[in-house]
Design goal:
Layout lengths: L3 E2 L5 E2 L10 H6 L2 E7 L2 H13 L5 E3 L1 H6 L4 H4 L2 E6 L3 H8 L4 H8 L21 H11 L12
Antiparallel strand pairs: 1-2, 3-5, 4-5
Length: 150
């Protein structure tokens, strides 16, 4: 435990506080993008992990993607940025894949075809291609079953 002066002539038995990072001080250091996410909530989860480790984090393009989510791919997603000296440590914290723990806890269920019993399946939605073409040509989805002739 270190003794530091509180500035009022009294001595305190607290450790000196680490450097406080704000948006302005983070801009003085070079920020490094360590991850990119499609949705802001994913970036917030990663930010919380880094905050818990004491790493200063900035999320770029979060509000733009919140307002216009279609811009996410054009902007390169919501970017998680840290000062350069913390980049390697932040990547190590975010790198573990814990999805195998969920499989162990809940069990992995394998989907099989009801007709042939094959495990090689993929999701398929009927009418997806015509709906995409109508959306691209008209700018809005057109559901023909909802229209009635008068």
């Amino acid at each position: 435990m270190t003794i530091c002066c509180t500035g009022r002539g009294k001595k305190s038995h607290r450790a000196p506080s680490p450097q406080r990072y704000t948006y302005k001080t983070m801009n003085k250091d070079r920020l490094t993008t360590i991850a990119s996410f499609s949705f802001p909530h994913e970036a917030q989860i990663a930010k919380t992990s880094l905050d818990a480790a004491g790493i200063p984090v900035f999320i770029a393009d979060e509000h733009t993607v919140n307002m216009q989510w279609l811009y996410s791919n054009a902007l390169g997603g919501v970017k998680l940025q840290v000062p350069s000296q913390f980049a390697e440590q932040a990547k190590e914290i975010l790198s573990p894949d814990l999805s195998c723990l969920a499989d162990e806890e809940f069990g992995k269920t394998e989907i099989t075809c009801k007709k042939c019993g094959s495990a090689s399946t993929e999701p398929y939605t009927k009418g997806k291609k015509p709906a995409c073409i109508v959306f691209l040509l008209l700018g809005f989805p057109l559901f023909l079953s909802a229209w009635r002739q008068v």
